[in-house]
Amino acid sequence: MTILVGVVALFAATFFVVWTRERRQRRTHPVAAGLRPEISLPFEEEFELYHNALSLCSMKIRVCLAELDIPYRSHPIDLIETGAYETLSRHFLSVNPAATVPVLVHDGHPVYESHEQIRYAAAHAPPDRASLVPDDPALRSTMERWIDRSSLTEDPIEHGDESAGNAVPGLTLAIFAAMIDRIGYTKILEGVLFHFDKKRPFMFLLFKAMGLERMGKIPLAVKLIARSRKQMDVHLDALEKELGASGGPWILGDPYSLADVSWLVIFERLAQLDTLHAFAADGLRPGCAAYFERLRARPAYREAILEHPHPLISYGTNRIRSAKAANPALRAVLEGRPASAAR
Ligand SMILES: N[C@@H](CCC(=O)N[C@@H](CS)C(=O)NCC(=O)O)C(=O)O
Question: Best substitution site from 57, 159, 163, 261 to test ligand 1's pocket, by max atoms within 8 Å of Cβ?
Fold first, then answer.
Protein backbone atom coordinates (compact mmCIF):
# COMPACT_ATOMS: atom_id res chain seq x y z
CA MET A 1 0.00 0.00 0.00
CA THR A 2 2.75 2.45 0.98
CA ILE A 3 4.60 1.57 -2.23
CA LEU A 4 1.46 2.22 -4.26
CA VAL A 5 0.94 5.63 -2.62
CA GLY A 6 4.61 6.43 -3.27
CA VAL A 7 4.36 5.47 -6.94
CA VAL A 8 1.18 7.54 -7.41
CA ALA A 9 2.75 10.54 -5.63
CA LEU A 10 5.89 10.26 -7.77
CA PHE A 11 3.80 10.03 -10.93
CA ALA A 12 1.69 13.05 -9.92
CA ALA A 13 4.77 15.11 -9.03
CA THR A 14 6.49 14.24 -12.34
CA PHE A 15 3.34 15.07 -14.28
CA PHE A 16 3.01 18.40 -12.49
CA VAL A 17 6.64 19.37 -13.17
CA VAL A 18 6.42 18.41 -16.87
CA TRP A 19 3.04 20.13 -17.30
CA THR A 20 4.23 23.33 -15.60
CA ARG A 21 7.33 23.47 -17.79
CA GLU A 22 5.39 22.74 -20.97
CA ARG A 23 2.73 25.29 -20.07
CA ARG A 24 5.38 27.92 -19.64
CA GLN A 25 6.85 27.09 -23.03
CA ARG A 26 3.46 27.06 -24.72
CA ARG A 27 2.25 30.33 -23.27
CA THR A 28 0.08 32.26 -25.74
CA HIS A 29 -0.67 35.95 -26.05
CA PRO A 30 -2.61 38.18 -28.44
CA VAL A 31 -0.73 39.64 -31.38
CA ALA A 32 -1.22 42.96 -33.15
CA ALA A 33 -3.00 42.69 -36.52
CA GLY A 34 -1.19 43.35 -39.79
CA LEU A 35 2.43 43.09 -40.90
CA ARG A 36 4.98 42.62 -38.12
CA PRO A 37 8.28 43.64 -39.75
CA GLU A 38 10.14 43.34 -36.42
CA ILE A 39 9.48 39.57 -36.34
CA SER A 40 11.63 37.35 -38.57
CA LEU A 41 10.76 33.74 -39.25
CA PRO A 42 12.62 31.13 -41.28
CA PHE A 43 11.34 31.13 -44.86
CA GLU A 44 12.10 29.72 -48.29
CA GLU A 45 9.59 31.46 -50.51
CA GLU A 46 8.44 35.06 -50.79
CA PHE A 47 4.99 34.16 -49.51
CA GLU A 48 4.28 31.31 -47.13
CA LEU A 49 0.95 30.43 -45.57
CA TYR A 50 0.17 28.55 -42.35
CA HIS A 51 -3.41 27.45 -42.71
CA ASN A 52 -6.03 24.79 -42.16
CA ALA A 53 -8.55 23.21 -44.55
CA LEU A 54 -11.56 23.79 -42.29
CA SER A 55 -10.68 27.24 -40.95
CA LEU A 56 -12.89 29.94 -42.44
CA CYS A 57 -10.18 32.59 -42.17
CA SER A 58 -7.67 30.27 -43.85
CA MET A 59 -10.08 29.73 -46.73
CA LYS A 60 -10.40 33.49 -47.10
CA ILE A 61 -6.70 34.18 -47.55
CA ARG A 62 -6.30 31.11 -49.81
CA VAL A 63 -9.09 32.43 -52.06
CA CYS A 64 -7.45 35.85 -52.10
CA LEU A 65 -4.01 34.47 -53.02
CA ALA A 66 -5.59 32.34 -55.75
CA GLU A 67 -7.47 35.34 -57.17
CA LEU A 68 -4.27 37.40 -57.19
CA ASP A 69 -2.27 34.49 -58.59
CA ILE A 70 0.30 34.84 -55.83
CA PRO A 71 2.18 31.57 -55.36
CA TYR A 72 2.96 30.50 -51.79
CA ARG A 73 4.54 27.73 -49.80
CA SER A 74 1.81 25.87 -47.96
CA HIS A 75 2.11 24.81 -44.31
CA PRO A 76 -1.05 22.91 -43.36
CA ILE A 77 -1.62 23.13 -39.60
CA ASP A 78 -4.09 20.92 -37.79
CA LEU A 79 -6.84 22.22 -35.54
CA ILE A 80 -8.36 19.72 -33.13
CA GLU A 81 -11.32 19.31 -35.52
CA THR A 82 -8.98 18.02 -38.23
CA GLY A 83 -6.85 15.86 -35.96
CA ALA A 84 -4.72 17.59 -33.32
CA TYR A 85 -3.92 20.80 -31.49
CA GLU A 86 -1.01 21.60 -33.78
CA THR A 87 -1.68 25.31 -33.20
CA LEU A 88 -0.48 24.72 -29.62
CA SER A 89 2.80 23.11 -30.69
CA ARG A 90 5.98 24.95 -29.78
CA HIS A 91 6.85 25.19 -33.46
CA PHE A 92 3.59 26.88 -34.44
CA LEU A 93 3.64 29.18 -31.41
CA SER A 94 6.95 30.54 -32.69
CA VAL A 95 5.04 31.52 -35.86
CA ASN A 96 1.95 32.83 -34.07
CA PRO A 97 2.00 33.19 -30.27
CA ALA A 98 -1.79 33.72 -30.45
CA ALA A 99 -2.07 30.04 -31.53
CA THR A 100 -4.46 30.67 -34.42
CA VAL A 101 -4.39 30.16 -38.16
CA PRO A 102 -4.00 31.58 -40.73
CA VAL A 103 -0.63 33.29 -40.75
CA LEU A 104 0.67 34.81 -43.95
CA VAL A 105 4.43 35.23 -44.06
CA HIS A 106 6.02 37.68 -46.49
CA ASP A 107 9.80 37.56 -46.88
CA GLY A 108 9.93 36.02 -43.41
CA HIS A 109 7.68 38.56 -41.67
CA PRO A 110 4.26 37.48 -40.39
CA VAL A 111 1.01 39.21 -41.21
CA TYR A 112 -1.67 38.44 -38.60
CA GLU A 113 -5.48 38.42 -38.95
CA SER A 114 -7.04 37.23 -42.17
CA HIS A 115 -8.88 40.50 -42.96
CA GLU A 116 -5.49 42.26 -42.79
CA GLN A 117 -3.83 39.50 -44.78
CA ILE A 118 -6.19 39.92 -47.73
CA ARG A 119 -5.60 43.68 -47.74
CA TYR A 120 -1.85 43.08 -47.55
CA ALA A 121 -1.90 40.51 -50.36
CA ALA A 122 -3.97 42.85 -52.55
CA ALA A 123 -1.40 45.60 -52.00
CA HIS A 124 1.23 43.15 -53.32
CA ALA A 125 -0.75 41.99 -56.36
CA PRO A 126 1.44 41.10 -59.34
CA PRO A 127 1.42 44.00 -61.85
CA ASP A 128 -0.63 42.03 -64.40
CA ARG A 129 -3.44 41.17 -61.95
CA ALA A 130 -6.43 43.22 -60.84
CA SER A 131 -5.68 44.26 -57.26
CA LEU A 132 -9.23 43.47 -55.99
CA VAL A 133 -9.36 46.98 -54.47
CA PRO A 134 -11.23 49.61 -56.49
CA ASP A 135 -9.67 53.04 -57.07
CA ASP A 136 -12.94 54.88 -56.50
CA PRO A 137 -13.00 55.98 -52.81
CA ALA A 138 -16.77 55.47 -52.48
CA LEU A 139 -16.53 51.90 -53.79
CA ARG A 140 -13.52 51.30 -51.58
CA SER A 141 -15.39 52.35 -48.49
CA THR A 142 -18.32 50.10 -49.44
CA MET A 143 -15.84 47.26 -49.91
CA GLU A 144 -14.33 47.89 -46.46
CA ARG A 145 -17.79 47.85 -44.91
CA TRP A 146 -18.54 44.45 -46.44
CA ILE A 147 -15.16 43.05 -45.45
CA ASP A 148 -15.86 44.11 -41.87
CA ARG A 149 -19.34 42.65 -42.04
CA SER A 150 -17.89 39.25 -42.91
CA SER A 151 -14.85 39.24 -40.62
CA LEU A 152 -14.25 37.02 -37.63
CA THR A 153 -13.12 39.28 -34.83
CA GLU A 154 -12.03 38.70 -31.27
CA ASP A 155 -14.66 37.06 -29.07
CA PRO A 156 -16.99 36.36 -32.04
CA ILE A 157 -19.74 34.71 -30.02
CA GLU A 158 -20.46 38.02 -28.28
CA HIS A 159 -20.43 40.03 -31.51
CA GLY A 160 -22.55 38.08 -33.97
CA ASP A 161 -24.71 41.16 -34.53
CA GLU A 162 -21.73 42.96 -36.02
CA SER A 163 -20.70 40.50 -38.70
CA ALA A 164 -21.66 37.30 -40.46
CA GLY A 165 -18.14 36.00 -39.68
CA ASN A 166 -18.93 36.31 -35.99
CA ALA A 167 -22.32 34.63 -36.44
CA VAL A 168 -20.65 31.64 -38.10
CA PRO A 169 -18.95 29.99 -35.06
CA GLY A 170 -22.30 29.39 -33.35
CA LEU A 171 -23.61 27.67 -36.47
CA THR A 172 -20.37 25.72 -36.86
CA LEU A 173 -21.02 23.84 -33.60
CA ALA A 174 -22.80 21.15 -35.63
CA ILE A 175 -19.80 20.27 -37.77
CA PHE A 176 -17.52 20.47 -34.73
CA ALA A 177 -19.74 17.89 -33.01
CA ALA A 178 -19.77 15.73 -36.14
CA MET A 179 -16.02 15.84 -36.80
CA ILE A 180 -14.91 15.37 -33.22
CA ASP A 181 -16.27 11.84 -33.06
CA ARG A 182 -13.29 10.81 -35.20
CA ILE A 183 -10.74 12.40 -32.82
CA GLY A 184 -9.43 10.55 -29.75
CA TYR A 185 -10.00 11.83 -26.22
CA THR A 186 -6.25 12.02 -25.58
CA LYS A 187 -5.88 14.52 -28.43
CA ILE A 188 -8.57 16.74 -26.90
CA LEU A 189 -6.86 16.41 -23.54
CA GLU A 190 -3.89 18.33 -24.93
CA GLY A 191 -6.25 21.29 -25.28
CA VAL A 192 -7.49 20.87 -21.71
CA LEU A 193 -3.89 21.08 -20.56
CA PHE A 194 -2.63 23.87 -22.80
CA HIS A 195 -5.38 25.74 -24.68
CA PHE A 196 -5.68 29.46 -23.86
CA ASP A 197 -9.46 29.21 -23.89
CA LYS A 198 -10.38 26.18 -21.80
CA LYS A 199 -14.05 26.44 -22.82
CA ARG A 200 -13.14 25.13 -26.25
CA PRO A 201 -11.55 21.76 -25.36
CA PHE A 202 -14.26 21.16 -22.76
CA MET A 203 -16.88 21.89 -25.42
CA PHE A 204 -15.25 19.29 -27.68
CA LEU A 205 -15.19 16.75 -24.83
CA LEU A 206 -18.89 17.37 -24.25
CA PHE A 207 -19.74 17.06 -27.96
CA LYS A 208 -17.71 13.88 -28.22
CA ALA A 209 -19.41 12.36 -25.18
CA MET A 210 -22.92 13.43 -26.25
CA GLY A 211 -22.65 12.95 -30.02
CA LEU A 212 -24.18 15.14 -32.72
CA GLU A 213 -27.56 13.43 -32.38
CA ARG A 214 -27.97 14.68 -28.82
CA MET A 215 -26.87 18.24 -29.53
CA GLY A 216 -30.48 19.36 -29.03
CA LYS A 217 -30.15 18.26 -25.41
CA ILE A 218 -27.47 20.86 -24.69
CA PRO A 219 -29.50 24.03 -23.90
CA LEU A 220 -26.53 26.37 -24.30
CA ALA A 221 -25.76 25.00 -27.77
CA VAL A 222 -29.43 25.21 -28.83
CA LYS A 223 -29.64 28.82 -27.65
CA LEU A 224 -26.40 29.80 -29.35
CA ILE A 225 -27.36 28.17 -32.65
CA ALA A 226 -30.78 29.90 -32.63
CA ARG A 227 -29.20 33.27 -31.90
CA SER A 228 -26.49 32.81 -34.56
CA ARG A 229 -29.12 31.78 -37.10
CA LYS A 230 -31.11 34.96 -36.47
CA GLN A 231 -27.96 37.06 -36.74
CA MET A 232 -26.99 35.37 -40.00
CA ASP A 233 -30.51 36.05 -41.35
CA VAL A 234 -30.05 39.77 -40.69
CA HIS A 235 -26.61 39.87 -42.37
CA LEU A 236 -27.84 37.95 -45.40
CA ASP A 237 -30.91 40.16 -45.75
CA ALA A 238 -28.55 43.12 -45.88
CA LEU A 239 -26.37 41.40 -48.48
CA GLU A 240 -29.43 40.49 -50.57
CA LYS A 241 -30.39 44.17 -50.56
CA GLU A 242 -26.88 45.30 -51.45
CA LEU A 243 -26.63 42.86 -54.36
CA GLY A 244 -29.97 44.16 -55.60
CA ALA A 245 -28.82 47.77 -55.31
CA SER A 246 -25.42 47.21 -56.96
CA GLY A 247 -27.05 45.14 -59.71
CA GLY A 248 -24.30 42.50 -59.32
CA PRO A 249 -22.70 40.34 -60.34
CA TRP A 250 -20.52 41.24 -57.33
CA ILE A 251 -21.06 43.23 -54.15
CA LEU A 252 -19.69 46.42 -55.72
CA GLY A 253 -21.42 45.78 -59.03
CA ASP A 254 -18.95 45.12 -61.81
CA PRO A 255 -15.62 44.94 -60.05
CA TYR A 256 -14.89 41.76 -58.15
CA SER A 257 -13.24 42.83 -54.88
CA LEU A 258 -11.93 41.74 -51.51
CA ALA A 259 -15.50 41.98 -50.24
CA ASP A 260 -16.45 39.05 -52.50
CA VAL A 261 -13.40 37.08 -51.34
CA SER A 262 -14.61 37.53 -47.76
CA TRP A 263 -18.23 36.54 -48.42
CA LEU A 264 -17.44 33.45 -50.49
CA VAL A 265 -16.18 31.67 -47.40
CA ILE A 266 -19.30 32.50 -45.38
CA PHE A 267 -21.45 30.76 -47.99
CA GLU A 268 -18.99 27.90 -48.26
CA ARG A 269 -19.27 27.33 -44.52
CA LEU A 270 -23.08 27.27 -44.74
CA ALA A 271 -22.74 24.65 -47.48
CA GLN A 272 -20.33 22.58 -45.37
CA LEU A 273 -22.89 22.72 -42.56
CA ASP A 274 -25.55 21.38 -44.96
CA THR A 275 -27.58 24.44 -44.09
CA LEU A 276 -27.22 26.67 -47.15
CA HIS A 277 -30.76 25.76 -48.24
CA ALA A 278 -32.08 27.29 -45.01
CA PHE A 279 -30.44 30.62 -45.81
CA ALA A 280 -30.19 31.08 -49.57
CA ALA A 281 -31.88 28.71 -52.02
CA ASP A 282 -35.21 27.71 -53.52
CA GLY A 283 -36.61 31.22 -53.67
CA LEU A 284 -35.12 32.22 -50.34
CA ARG A 285 -32.77 35.18 -50.92
CA PRO A 286 -32.36 34.31 -54.62
CA GLY A 287 -29.82 37.10 -55.08
CA CYS A 288 -27.50 35.53 -52.51
CA ALA A 289 -28.05 32.03 -53.91
CA ALA A 290 -27.12 33.12 -57.44
CA TYR A 291 -24.20 35.17 -56.10
CA PHE A 292 -22.72 32.09 -54.40
CA GLU A 293 -23.11 30.09 -57.62
CA ARG A 294 -21.14 32.80 -59.46
CA LEU A 295 -18.46 32.79 -56.77
CA ARG A 296 -18.22 29.02 -56.98
CA ALA A 297 -17.71 29.19 -60.72
CA ARG A 298 -14.49 31.20 -60.36
CA PRO A 299 -11.22 29.26 -60.74
CA ALA A 300 -10.11 30.54 -57.31
CA TYR A 301 -12.89 28.50 -55.68
CA ARG A 302 -11.50 25.30 -57.14
CA GLU A 303 -7.92 26.24 -56.36
CA ALA A 304 -8.41 27.51 -52.83
CA ILE A 305 -11.22 25.32 -51.58
CA LEU A 306 -11.83 22.22 -53.67
CA GLU A 307 -8.10 21.55 -53.95
CA HIS A 308 -7.73 21.72 -50.16
CA PRO A 309 -10.14 18.99 -49.11
CA HIS A 310 -10.05 17.24 -45.77
CA PRO A 311 -11.70 13.85 -45.30
CA LEU A 312 -13.12 14.94 -41.93
CA ILE A 313 -14.93 17.93 -43.45
CA SER A 314 -16.86 15.81 -45.93
CA TYR A 315 -17.39 13.26 -43.17
CA GLY A 316 -18.82 16.05 -40.98
CA THR A 317 -21.17 17.36 -43.68
CA ASN A 318 -22.47 13.86 -44.43
CA ARG A 319 -22.92 13.09 -40.72
CA ILE A 320 -24.99 16.28 -40.27
CA ARG A 321 -27.10 15.43 -43.31
CA SER A 322 -27.87 11.89 -42.20
CA ALA A 323 -28.39 12.85 -38.53
CA LYS A 324 -30.98 15.47 -39.59
CA ALA A 325 -32.71 12.99 -41.91
CA ALA A 326 -33.07 10.55 -39.04
CA ASN A 327 -33.97 13.15 -36.45
CA PRO A 328 -36.43 15.93 -37.29
CA ALA A 329 -35.93 17.53 -33.88
CA LEU A 330 -32.23 17.95 -34.65
CA ARG A 331 -33.14 19.42 -38.03
CA ALA A 332 -35.36 21.92 -36.25
CA VAL A 333 -32.49 22.91 -33.96
CA LEU A 334 -30.01 23.32 -36.80
CA GLU A 335 -32.31 24.85 -39.42
CA GLY A 336 -34.93 26.57 -37.29
CA ARG A 337 -37.86 24.81 -38.88
CA PRO A 338 -40.68 23.12 -37.00
CA ALA A 339 -39.66 19.52 -36.26
CA SER A 340 -42.47 18.30 -38.55
CA ALA A 341 -41.29 20.21 -41.64
CA ALA A 342 -39.50 17.95 -44.10
CA ARG A 343 -37.06 19.25 -46.65
N1 LIG B 1 -9.50 36.94 -36.29
C2 LIG B 1 -8.61 35.89 -36.70
C3 LIG B 1 -9.25 34.59 -36.26
C4 LIG B 1 -8.29 33.45 -36.25
C5 LIG B 1 -8.93 32.22 -35.65
O6 LIG B 1 -9.68 32.30 -34.65
N7 LIG B 1 -8.60 31.09 -36.23
C8 LIG B 1 -9.17 29.85 -35.78
C9 LIG B 1 -9.55 29.00 -36.97
S10 LIG B 1 -10.73 29.84 -37.99
C11 LIG B 1 -8.12 29.08 -34.97
O12 LIG B 1 -6.97 29.04 -35.35
N13 LIG B 1 -8.49 28.49 -33.84
C14 LIG B 1 -7.61 27.72 -33.05
C15 LIG B 1 -8.31 27.05 -31.91
O16 LIG B 1 -9.48 27.32 -31.74
O17 LIG B 1 -7.70 26.27 -31.19
C18 LIG B 1 -8.40 35.94 -38.23
O19 LIG B 1 -9.25 36.52 -38.92
O20 LIG B 1 -7.38 35.46 -38.71
Answer: 57
Do 204 and 176 form a contact (C-beta atoms < 8 A)?
Answer: yes
Q: Which residues, listed in sequence order, are joined to residue 51 by a DSSP beta bridge? A: 76
Q: In terms of pTM, does the model score above 0.85?
A: yes
Q: Which atom of ligand 1 is nearest to the CA of 153?
A: 1
pLDDT of residue 93: 97
Q: Average model confidence (pLDDT) for the chain?
A: 95
What is the Rg, in whole angstroms, of the alpha carbon atoms belonging to the chain? 21
Instruction: Look up residue 2 and give its amino acid.
Output: T
d(CA 189, CA 139): 48
pLDDT along the chain (343 residues), means of 10: 85 83 89 98 98 98 98 98 97 97 98 97 94 96 98 89 96 97 97 95 97 95 96 98 97 98 98 97 93 98 98 98 96 78 46
Nearest atom in ligand 1 to 195's CA? 17
Residue 200 identity (one-letter amino acid):
R
Q: Domains of the chain, with CATH numbers?
A: 34-133 (3.40.30.10), 146-335 (no CATH)
Q: Which residues contact 204 (CB under 8 A, 6 or more apart)?
A: 80, 176, 180, 183, 188, 191
Q: Who's near 72: CB < 8 A, 6+ residues apart? A: 45, 47, 48, 49, 65, 104
What's the half-sphere exposure (Cβ side, CA atoms, 13 Å) at 182? Answer: 17
Terminal Cα distance for the chain, rounded = 63
Q: Are 202 and 100 in contact (CB under 8 A)?
A: no
